[in-house]
Amino acid sequence: MEIYKMLVLSTSHVSKETAKLLDRDNVGVVVYPKSEYGWFIVATDWDEHENIPDDLQKCLELTEQLGCDWLCLDCDGKCVPELLTYKW
Question: Which of 20, 33, 41, 83 is the 20 to 30 Å CA partner of 26?
Fold first, then answer.
């Protein structure tokens, strides 16, 4: 049996530009759409030297710090004070 931990954050922690890149799966990480409500992102297989936007990289770093394997960016996810938020 395998169990994975997932951090759920608000989509407001990424900019509108990064959201467009996530929609196109063009950010240097493995991304799965979460219907029209956000994205599931593999947080264990990324390289900070890739062309990953800074806002997304900060989310991934927090995900790793908390020992999670997945990052879910969801429109109903919580905002955390450690990360910037963007209005869009």
Answer: 83
